Amino acid sequence: MMTYGYKPELSEGAIKCPIFQTSTFVFKTAEEGKSFFEVAYGLRERGQEEELGLIYSRINNPNMEILENRLTLWDKADDCAVFESGMAAISTVLLEFLKPGDLVAYTSPSYGGTDHFIKQFLPKLGVEHVCFHPDQSREEVIETIRATGKGDKLAFIYVETPANPTNTLFDIQLCKAVADAFSTEDKKVYLCADNTYMGPVWSSPLTIGADLVLYSATKYIGGHSDLIAGAVLGNFEVMKRVKTLRTFLGNMAGPHTAWLMLRSLETLKIRMDRQCENAQKVANYLNTHEKVSKVYYLGLIEEGTNAYAIYKRQYNSPGAMISFDIVGGEKAAFKFLNNLKLFKLAVSLGSTEGLAQHPATMTHVGIDPEQRKQMNVTENLIRLSIGVEDADDIIWDLQQAFEKV
Ligand SMILES: *Cc1c(COP(=O)(O)O)cnc(C)c1O
Fold first, then answer.
1. 75, 79, 102, 194: which is the annotated catalytic residue?
2. Is the CB of 218 within 6 Å of ligand 1?
3. CATH number of the domain at 57-265, please?
4. Are 215 and 92 in contact (CB under 8 A)?
5. What is the pLDDT of residues 230-256, one digit of tens each?
6. Helix 62-75 vs helix 255-266: crossing angle, to nearest 10
7. Which fold has domain 268-404?
8. Could you tell me the pLDDT band of residue 49, with boundaries at 50, 70 and 90?
9. What is the pTM of this model?
10. How does DSSP classify residue 54?
């Protein structure tokens, strides 16, 4: 994460990759320009030793390329594309893999922006959708898709796990089996996983059946609450499609954002390890607190359950996102949030500082109240993103805020 893909000799010996704040690149000769374009536009395959020539920063840029190369290592992917936001990554993938008449199946609950794009925008292109839920078996999911009468049009399955804000788990292998059940000789159903909550360090969906994995890199990958970005990874075949559409939508990450992420990657694992270590202590503290009626945390899933089996199969850590029900409804929840000193009252997650928010009136306010209740998003629920601060300081902060309630 510190040196891979960067050659100091190409940058005056600079130990760190400088920011290539440039829109375009000068060709040595017209022949070189011609040759670069042939590869970039797919007119000929890139040679074994040949690097993609630098042309124009919408197509490629050293900061973007080095970042993408480093990100492929975590997910064991062939290639990566970085975007100017998580939503840019998500919308580009959905636009590339769906066409008028197709059906997309996706997990509910999903991130609000994803849900909106699928439900409100894709129908304008003639793409229909169907949701499935974490308690459904493979047969039930298949039946739900068949019941739409458009099973033969299923083109894409989109899974977000663990689901926000209650850490509900979806089984990626189950989704893969469903994708296979609807794939035919001439039509493959692609499976895509939003790994923002647990990746790239704690989970690798590509190794257990996903064709594409994507991130809001705004969260753990960026990790300092100072940038908005996204990333998509997969094999050469799918990434060629994603990168080509990105070139024409023009929604790639800029050089400065890519440079910030290169800095972030150096501490990614250290940050995530520390955040998880802290989260386990915080979850145990909350779990015994008299003003807390329930804690939603992967590390507290009961052994022997189906959720536990999925947890062990998909993740190598319980992560650093915790939600809990405070006793006393919205009034108690707001009193608690307003009295936090170290935690910042803000949405987003995965950053070095702890963040706290109230899903029912903030991130999940757009969801139908009945569905919100089904998801356990009540007025009692508080979501915490655990940071890298000292665990004793974090628990001290929670303790003093509880005392005000
Ligand atoms: C934040 C988030 C997104 C959207 O990413 P942006 O970078 O805000 O565009 C998508 N999925 C999940 C799970 C997220 O948390």
1. 194
2. yes
3. 3.40.640.10
4. no
5. 999 999 999 999 999 999 999 999 999
6. 40
7. Aspartate Aminotransferase, domain 1 (3.90.1150)
8. confident
9. 0.96
10. P
